[in-house]
Amino acid sequence: MNVLFYLSSAIAIAATIMVITRYKPIHALLYLVVSFMAVAMIFLSLGAPFVAVLEIILYAGAIIVLMIFVVMMLNLGSETAQQEKEWLLPKVWLGPSILSLVLLGEIIYLLLRSGTGNASFIFIDSKKVALSLYGEYIIAVELTGFLLMAGIVGAAHIGKHKKKHLHRFLQEEEVSTKIEVRSTKPEDEKQTKPVAYKP
Amino acid sequence: MTSVQLLALLPFMLLATASIIVILLIAFKQSHTVIQVTGFLMMCSVILAMWYVRDVLPVAVLPLLVVDGFAAIFTGMIIFSVLVVGLFSFIYFEEREENPKEYYILLFLSTLGAAVLTISRHFISLFIGLELLSVSLYALIAYLRTRNNAVEAGLKYLVLAAVSSAFLLFGMALIYMETGSMEFNAIAQKTGTTLSPLFVTGVGLMVVAIGFKLAIVPFHLWAADVYQGAPAPVTSFIATVSKIGVFAVLLRFGQAVHLQANSLAFTIFAALAILSMIAGNILALRQDNIKRLLAYSSIAHFGYLIVAFLPGNEAGVEASMFYLLAYSITTLVAFGIITLLSTRERDAEKLEGYRGLFWRHPILAAVLTVALLSLAGIPLTGGFIGKFAVLTSGVQQGLWAPVIVLVLTSVVGIYYYLRILTTLFAEAPSIAKKEKVLHPFFYNAMYAALIVLAVILLGIGVFPSGVMNGIKEFLAIGGQ
């Protein structure tokens, strides 16, 4: 069990070093996902599968969502797919994949040798986590709610876009659209007037 | 949770409710004045609640919190400071470009964080309290987000505070690994009198984080920039509330595990105190920016406070409480005057702007004089009695090195405080014509508050026994 622990720790450290030395954010994110998976593996090897799963869902999952957002916002077309193929060199994906493969190997090893595990550690399932969170540590959970509130209010304030109040002479676009509207009106009248005068 | 525990937590629940009430008021589009007054009343109710529940103390809310007399004093000081800071904020933020309403949510949330620190007896509550304090502070410091100074200060604080939190967590992990517990008293039982190297390493890492928050040398690098860049009321908040909270938890942790009994830990703290006193005073000597000067002077003052922390006995605790009280009132007065003299465009931070203040605003100059004399530790002010109490507690334990440094650096400190004083009374360059006072009600309230604070400062300097007895009485409630 110790070997697994040290192996995953080494992967976590290596991946994190790669995160902070990458120049491109997406490459760094790839390694960050690996880092979180390695931490989840550490939890798993220590007998806390629930926390391990949470680690994957909350952290690694959140990063995947981030990546999807980036892809969505860039609004990529077909020519970028070609560019992407040229950019996706083996040196970009090889590192994270190898590290992930090692982690996968660890999990397979753990699954295959199930039943023979030693009982030196306490098995922590979701019920125990829930009981301690909503039992003795309930105040901590509530305070964490306030912590989130502080973060959200702060981020909302810092990131807020301020409405620009321009002088009416500076609002060129709106003025020009108004003129267009006016210029169309007489034409309509011209078309309608002859019709009105005929009888 | 029993009803007694809920009762003991009443002040903290009220404090938490205050921020939610402010959010609701914003949602219902209430004006700045309504929010300000409601916030003021909520803080008053917190103090009243604290007074009301003092008979049931001490109450332990296992395993995270304990509400005792010790916590009551520190929480009282924190709420008192927030009352004053809130009063200062109205004029300041009403005149600035940003919408001032969210400010109060963040202000009350970070106050909640500081208050949780004073009652925490467990690493988890310590960490959450500290994070609550600093996460709100990031946004508060950068609140005027179009100003480069403010954004720079906020970012600097964000990065350094995050790093210091990492140190704190790692230190906690090491102590947990050594003792198998995260509760202060349980840790003390596990370790006994001799502390293992791993434990001291853990404490050392925690000291990095605590030292960062208290701006002790060598973790003080953020102080001057953040003090300068943050809006003046926020600066006064950092200088008082956040430091009171962190110092309270340091004091409680030190008392619980008898940190001072360990010679290595003792040496570390003594060295930090001496370094802070020397570096803070020397860096302040040549400052022309009054906010930066107060930042360096606060570094020196926390060096003095650590001297009171070193003995680790009752006298030291009482001395540090009195010192913190005098220091926070003084700082609030000084920053209050900076707030009052600030213009819409910039804070009144240049020393030049104070030239001849006495001839323009004689009362403000007199109040600032009292504050500066108290910071310098001149007799008849609260600062003198505080310093005297700290010296007494140090001398009783024979801590000669820190005590001698304290005395010598205080002499150096007098130089730069007197430099400001001479500026105040110097010949005014030209009598500027009186500006129209905006928001007369809040202006006058602030004026009155500053005068009252200055009178309190003189009062506790002349008759310190009343306050000292009060502190002793409260400490007796929370007997360990």
UniProtKB/TrEMBL annotation, chain A:
Q: What class of enzyme is it?
A: translocase
Q: Spell out the residue ranges making up region: Disordered.
A: 180-199
Biased composition annotated in UniProt, kind: Basic and acidic residues = 180-192
TM annotation in the entry: 6-23, 30-50, 56-76, 88-112, 137-158
Where this protein primarily resides, as one coarse class?
membrane
State which Enzyme Commission number(s) the record gives.
7.1.1.-
Q: Which GO terms describe its cellular component?
A: plasma membrane
Q: Which InterPro entries match?
A: NADH_UbQ/plastoQ_OxRdtase_su6, Nuo/plastoQ_OxRdtase_6_NuoJ
Q: Which UniProt keywords apply?
A: Cell membrane, Membrane, NAD, Oxidoreductase, Quinone, Translocase, Transmembrane, Transmembrane helix
Q: Which reaction does it catalyse?
A: a quinone + NADH + 5 H(+)(in) = a quinol + NAD(+) + 4 H(+)(out)
From the UniProt record, which GO molecular function terms apply? NADH dehydrogenase (ubiquinone) activity; oxidoreductase activity; quinone binding
The entry's localization annotation reads: Cell membrane
Query: Per its UniProt record, what Pfam families does this chain match?
Result: Oxidored_q3
| Membrane topology of this protein | Multi-pass membrane protein
Per the record, the domain of life is Bacteria
What family does the Swiss-Prot or TrEMBL record give for this protein?
Answer: Belongs to the complex I subunit 6 family.
Q: Quote the function comment for this protein.
A: NDH-1 shuttles electrons from NADH, via FMN and iron-sulfur (Fe-S) centers, to quinones in the respiratory chain. Couples the redox reaction to proton translocation (for every two electrons transferred, four hydrogen ions are translocated across the cytoplasmic membrane), and thus conserves the redox energy in a proton gradient.
The annotated subunit structure for this chain is: Composed of 13 different subunits. Subunits NuoA, H, J, K, L, M, N constitute the membrane sector of the complex.
Q: What is this protein called?
A: NADH-quinone oxidoreductase subunit J
Q: Species lineage, top-down?
A: Bacteria, Pseudomonadati, Bacteroidota, Chitinophagia, Chitinophagales
Gene encoding it? nuoJ
TrEMBL record, chain B:
- Gene Ontology CC: one annotated term: plasma membrane
This entry's Gene Ontology molecular function terms read: NADH dehydrogenase (quinone) (non-electrogenic) activity; NADH dehydrogenase (ubiquinone) activity; quinone binding
> Domain NADH:quinone oxidoreductase/Mrp antiporter transmembrane, which positions?
120-412
Superkingdom in the source lineage: Bacteria
Asked whether the keyword Transmembrane is assigned, the reply is yes
Bilayer-crossing residues are 6-27, 34-53, 65-91, 103-120, 126-145, 157-177, 197-222, 234-253, 265-286, 293-310, 322-342, 363-386, 398-420, 441-463
Catalysed reactions listed for this entry: a quinone + NADH + 5 H(+)(in) = a quinol + NAD(+) + 4 H(+)(out)
Q: Does the keyword Ligase apply?
A: no
Q: What is its EC number?
A: 7.1.1.-
Query: Which enzyme type, at the first EC level?
Result: translocase
The record's similarity note reads: Belongs to the complex I subunit 2 family.
Purpose: NDH-1 shuttles electrons from NADH, via FMN and iron-sulfur (Fe-S) centers, to quinones in the respiratory chain. The immediate electron acceptor for the enzyme in this species is believed to be a menaquinone. Couples the redox reaction to proton translocation (for every two electrons transferred, four hydrogen ions are translocated across the cytoplasmic membrane), and thus conserves the redox energy in a proton gradient.
Protein name listed in UniProt: NADH-quinone oxidoreductase subunit N
Lineage, highest ranks first = Bacteria, Pseudomonadati, Bacteroidota, Chitinophagia, Chitinophagales
Q: Which gene encodes it?
A: nuoN
